[in-house]
Fold this protein.
Amino acid sequence: MDKTNVMRLLDGMGISYTPRSYPADGSVPSGVEAARLMGEDPSHVFKTLVTRGGKGGYFVFVIPVAEELDLKKAAKAVGEKSVAMLHVKELLPLTGYVRGGCSPVGMKKQYPTVFHRTALDYETVYISAGKIGAQVELAPRALLDLLGASTADIVVDQ
């Protein structure tokens, strides 16, 4: 697998990771399907979601792929009255990433980032390596420290 910008940034910061991939035929599989293609438990594979706050700021939320972001809990976690999902056409210009390949690492600008609290329950987690079909597996604490991220309960209750 070719190194992505995410991998180069992690290398530059001395953060160890394992590159992982899954077959990508040009379509964007669901996160659960990507986890299945890698033979991994979806609770360890995290997706990156970008939102706009009610005051106009941007926020990044990273949650397990099988979960749904609870917008009210997310807003509370970042001290906003409300947050709304960013429209897909705004994603590339704002972050430098496309839908299905968005990573919390290496966005054009670092936005406040919140991981679902379960990220710290695992020795390693998977996040996008910055392109569809590419993931990196790494220690969640190293990732949160790198991003200055926090954790919170930000998913819809099952």
